[in-house]
Amino acid sequence: MAIIERPTTAVSELQVAAPAIPSTALGALKRPVTTTGWRSWVFTVDHKKLGIMYSATALFFFIVGGLEAVLIRLQLAAPNGKVLNADLYNQMFTMHATTMVFLFVMPMAAGLANYFVPLQIGARDVAFPRINAFGFWAFLFGGIFLNLAWFLGGAADGGWFMYAPNSGPVFSPSHGVDFWALGLQITGIASLTGSINLIVTILNMRAPGMKLMRMPIFTWMQLVVQFLLVFAVPVITVALFLLSFQRNFGATFFNVEAGADPLLWQHLFWIFGHPEVYILILPSFGVISEVLPVFSRKPLFGYPFVVFSGAAIGFVGWGVWAHHMFASGLGPVSVAVFSVATMAIAVPTGVKIVNWTMTLWGGKLVFTVAMKYAVALIVLFTIGGLSGVTHSVAPSDTQQTDTYYIVAHFHYVLFGGAIFGLFSGFYYWWPKVFGKLLSEKIGNWSFWLMVFGMNMTFGPMHILGLQGQPRRMYIWTEARAGEGFFNLGFWNTVASIGSLILSLGILLFLINVVVTTRKGQVAPLDPWNARSLEWMTSNPPKEHNFDSIPTVSHLDEFFHRKYKENENGEMVQVATAEEIVAELEKNADAHIHMPSPSYWPIILALGLPVTAFGVIYSIPVAVVGGLIILLGMYGWALEPSTAPDDDIDPPTSSSKEVAHVG
After folding, report:
1. What is the pTM of this model?
2. CB-based contacts of 537: which residues, under 8 Å, 6+ apart?
C-alpha cells in the first residue's frame, strides 16, 4: 500500500499527482499513481478507473446488442423478410436480450457504483480494491466468452430464459447454449464479488457523521441491489450448473424421460429473474433521485419514503416470480398468491413516482439534458408499470404470455426506465468523471430522437401483442397480416422504422462523446450546483478522492456547506464550491494510504474462460484453466503489500514498519 504525502496542487487542477516520497520516511514504497500508458489501466485497482472501464466495456456491448436489435427489426420490417433465416433469428434475439441484460445494464450500473459510491460516502477507495479489479476482468472475459459462440458454430438460440427442454442437447445440439451457460456463470462470479465489495464499502467506510439516513439515494439503491445480487446470483448459478452438467456430462436434471421436471428450470430461473428486474432498474431510480432535486432546486421530497420503498421493492420482488409461469399449470392457489404479490409490488414503486413528482412540483426546474432523461424515465416507466400490472390478472396474463405485449412491457420498463436513467447519469456525472461538459445541443437532439424512436418502436408492440403476434415469430406475410388499424404488417413496419430512429439518437450520443473528448467545454468545479459529496473534490477526482475526509452533519452535505438559512428562513449562499474544496486541501491529511496496482486479478480471471473452454471441448484444457486459477490465487495471496519505487533504493528493515497491507 502506497503512502501519498499531503497534496500541494491548486484546486483548479484536474489531476493530483503524488509527489516523490522520501525513502527515509516511507521506505521507498509507493503506488505508481502517476504512471501513464496501458499499464496504468490494466493493472489498476483504483475504483474510479475500474468504474470507467466497466462503463466503457458495457457501452461497447450496448452497441453490439443494439445492432442485434436492428437486425431483428429489419427482418420484420416487411413481409417475407430475408435478412435472417429462422435459426439465425433465434440466435439474434437470444443474444440481444442476454447482451442488454447481463453485458450492458448490469455492468453499466456496476460502473457507476464503482465510481461514485465511494465518493458519495466520503471514502478514498472501496473495501477490497483487488477483488474489485478481479470483478471487472471476470465480467470482460465472460462477455467475450459469451460472444465467441458466434464464431464457433453459432450462438445460443433458446431465448434469454433458455427454457428446458429446448435448451437441452436434443433441441440445441450446437455449443451455443454451452457458451451461454458457462459465460453467464463467469459474469455471475463478477457480479457476486462486486456486490460483496460494495456492501462492505457502504456499511464500513462511510465518512464520519454519515449515518445510513444521510446517504444519497443512489448509494441506498445500490446497497439494495447488492443484497439482491448476493441472494439472486447463487440461484441462477445453480440452474446454470445443472444445465451445463446435463449438456456436457449426461446428467438428467430436466429430462422428462428420466423422471425429471422441466419446470424446475423455470422456478430456478425466475426466482433469480424477477429480482433481476429490480437489479436492473433500481440503480436508475437512484440516479434520477440525485438528478431531480439538483435541477428542481429543492430537496428530494420524502427522502425516507424513497429509501424504504426501494428496500420494499427489493424484498417483495422475491415473491412475484411465478407470474412468469401462469401458463404452466401451477394451480389456482399458487396463481392467486402470486397475483396478489404482483399487485403489492406496485405500491412501493408508485410511492417513488409520487415522490419524484412532488420533487418537481413547485421547484425551479432547469431542463438540462440530464433532467429531461430523468423526467422521461418517470413517464415511460409509469407506462411500462401500468402494462405490468395487467400481468397480475391471471386470465389476461395467460393470453399475453409469449406475445409482443410482453416485449412492449419490458422494453418500456428496461429501456424507458433503466436505460433512460443511465443516460441521465451520463450527462449529469460526465463533467465529474472527465472534467468536460457534454454538448447540450447534441444531447437534446439525441434525447428527442431516443424518446420518439423508443415510443415508435415499442408502443405498437402493445397492439401487435393484443392481436396475438407471438414474440418469436421471425416472418410474416401480407395474406395473414390482417386489415385496417390492427394490420400486423403496418405496425411491424412502424416499429422497425422507430428502431432506426432510436439508433440514430444513440449514434448522436456517441458523436457527442467524441466531440466532447476532442474539444468539449471544460467544466467548472460545480457545474450543476449539486448537493452530494462526490462534487466536493476536483473534476476529475484526485487519486485519493479527498484531501481530507469530510465530516458529515447533514443529508446533502455539500449543499449545506454552500448554503445556510438566514434569519428570515431563506437559504443564502455562504461559500462556493472552490472555497469548500480549498478548505479541504488546506487541512489535507499528511499521509494518505492507497493500494498498489496488481496483475494477479487478471490472471485469476483469465483462468475462468480457459476452464470453461475445457468443459466444452477438452477436459485437459479445463485442467490447465484450473491451474491458472490456482496460480492466480497463490500469487495474489503472496503478493507484496507495496510496490517498490524504481527511483529509490530498496526499503530498509526499519522502514518496513510503516508499510501497510494492501
Report:
1. 0.91
2. 119, 545, 546, 547, 581, 584
Nearest Cα residue to 359 out of 285, 287, 301, 286: 301
> Domain holding 383: CATH number?
1.20.210.10
Average pLDDT over residues 45-72: 97
CA distance 178 to 494: 36
Instruction: Name residues whose C-beta falls within 8 Å of residue 453's C-beta, 6 or more positions apart in sequence.
Output: 498, 499, 500, 501, 502, 503, 504, 505
Would you say residue 297 lies in a domain?
yes
Cα 603 to Cα 46: distance, rounded to the nearest angstrom: 18
Average pLDDT score over residue span 89-105: 96
In whole angstroms, what is the distance from residue 411 CA to residue 464 CA? 14
Residue pointed to by grid coordinates 449539486: 530
Q: Which DSSP state fits 302? A: T
Phi-psi region at 565: left, alpha or beta (left = phi > 0; alpha = psi -120 to 50)? beta
Q: Is 90 contained in some domain? A: yes
Assign residue 173 a region: left if phi > 0, alpha if psi is -120 to 50, beta otherwise? alpha
Q: Is 86 exposed, middle or buried (0-12, 13-18, 19+ CB in 10 A)?
A: exposed
Q: Which three cell numbers stand for residue 256?
A: 422428462
> Look-up: residue for cell 426506465?
417
CB 85, CB 157: distance < 8 Å:
no
Q: How many domains does the chain contain in total? A: 1
Instruction: Compute the half-sphere exposure of residue 656: CA atoms within 13 Å on the CB side of its CA.
Output: 6
How far apart are alpha carbons 629 and 645 in whole angstroms?
Answer: 29
**Residue 462 has which C-alpha cell?**
402493445
Is residue 229 classed as helix, strand or coil in its secondary structure?
A: helix
The band of 29, judged by pLDDT with boundaries at 50, 70 and 90, is very low
Give the pLDDT of residue 391: 85
Q: Tens of pLDDT along 501-539? A: 999 999 999 999 999 999 888 999 999 999 999 999 999
Residue 301 main-chain phi, psi, to 5 deg: -70, 130
* Residue 13 lies inside a defined structural domain of this protein: no
Domain with 481, as residue range(s), is 46-594
Does residue 68 have a pLDDT over 60? yes
Q: What is the pLDDT of residues 185-223, one digit of tens each?
A: 999 999 999 999 999 999 999 999 999 999 999 999 999
DSSP state of 470: B
- Does residue 483 have a pLDDT over 70? no
Query: pLDDT > 70: what percent of the chain?
Result: 90
Q: Is residue 644 part of a domain?
A: no
The more confidently predicted of residues 189 and 168 is 189
**Whole-angstrom distance between the N-terminal and C-terminal Cα of the chain?**
5
Q: Is the peptide bond before 460 cis (omega within 30 degrees of 0)?
A: no
**Average pLDDT of the segment spanning 242-262:** 91
Burial of 362 (0-12, 13-18, 19+ CB in 10 A): exposed
Matching residue, cell 462470479: 189
Instruction: Give the C-alpha separation, 454 to 643, whole Å.
Output: 50
Q: Which residues pair with 662 in a beta bridge?
A: none
- Which DSSP category does 151 fall into? G
Spatial CA neighbour of 415 closest among 458, 473, 353: 458
What cell does 240 get? 446454470
